[in-house]
Amino acid sequence: MDYVIEFIPQIARGLNITISVLIASALFAYIMAFFSGLCRLSNNVIVRKFTGFYVEIFRGTSLIVQLFWLYYAIPMLFGIQLGSNWWVGVFAIGLNYGAYLSEVVRTSILSVAQGQYEAATALNMSRFQRMRIVIFPQAVRMMLPEFGNYTIQILKGTSLVSLIAMSDILYYGDILRGSYQQQTPIIYGIVLVLYFILALPLIWLTKKGEKIAKKGVAS
Amino acid sequence: MDFTYWSWDTFLEALPFVLQGLGITIGLTFSCFVFALVFGFVWTFLQRIQNKYIKAVVTFIMEFIRSTPPLVQLFFIYYALPVLPVIGVTLHPFVCAVIGLGVHFSTYIGEIYRSGIESVDKGQWEAATALNYSTKDKWLRIILPQAFPPTIPMLGNYFIIMFKEVPLASTISVGGILFMARTFGSEHWAYLEPITIVGILFLLLSYPSALLIKKLEKKINHRFNTSVMTKNTNA
What we know:
The complex is a heterodimer of chains A (219) and B (235).
Chain A: H1 2-12, H2 15-39, H3 45-60, H4 63-78, H5 85-110, H6 114-122, H7 127-157, H8 169-179, H9 184-214
Helix pairs in contact in A: 1-8, 1-9, 2-5, 2-7, 3-5, 4-5, 5-7, 6-7, 7-9, 8-9
Chain B: H1 8-19, H2 22-47, H3 52-67, H4 70-80, H5 93-118, H6 122-130, H7 135-147, H8 152-165, H9 177-188, H10 192-224
Helix pairs in contact in B: 1-9, 1-10, 2-5, 2-8, 3-5, 4-5, 5-7, 5-8, 8-10, 9-10
């Protein structure tokens, strides 16, 4: 028990990295999701194909490979420094889950009933108005549970940034393991519990999102 | 933009080296998948026990495993299991990866089984009872034959998802393609080419399988005219 009290503050030092990467990459993923989800519904073939290419590349390979690729390859290939490893992590996680979420955005918009499109057209709305006033608000409601689920996935994904030398909670856990071999179960137990505590509000929000998505829908 | 850092010589040198790990990556994917398929049954079975305390505990454990990172779970099994008192055992890294990833994904698979069973129409249960089927016959002849087929495409999707999570095992020194690429990188101080090869290999394998699953899904939906809705089963 003494060890638990001793370890918690040490591991919790990584919380600011874990939480900041979580928030930044989640926001980045949401932006990518709406942007590319809407691009894939564009009338322009080039825009559609290009975003389709992005989505398939990032859905087809794994996050850890993308993370290492961005970490090793981008500076060498293009001579760009992304600034810091924090940005590499945020970019990798954001681009990866942005690709998954863009499919959620796309399918939700497509699942809005055809009658809604026709009614909006009949009311003489422009294409943009139709999307903004009629289709989008209905589609967003359906997206909420999936966005909640994927945010939990993003939280799980943030643990990977410890592999590119970011000092998140897993990183501090690994360092402690070096000096307290015999207490390894306690150390990783604390790390797991901390991740679960971070996930709890997200789980709650997901449940809430499911309720909102179901409300007032006949089925 | 200049590509002077890209070297085709290194690429050709790295390619056979990285490919050595392909067998392990694919083998690990299949092992994890089979483990998760079997262990998923355990969760489904435990969830069906009609005792609210057991149910609450099982749901909590599943939620805990599902919402914590598989990477930490792998580390727990690899580093912490050997020093645990009484049950402490040192396992081969490959076995650690199978158990770690297998248990993680079995919670999702269990959820899929549950949704499949719940999608069977209530009338079928009642009819089976009315026809005086034994519990064994009810499950084997009425419920499972209807519950299983709609879950096949979802299980297939999870196969691909697991394939993409398997490189996590490189962190506990399982010699898959990512591990090979990083070994090559540290030996030759050239990471760009081997990591790119790994990315291409993943695309080459997962994209066609995803198309195949989509086709299968269409076929099964057409045949059974059902689609099972699941919540909380994304990874």
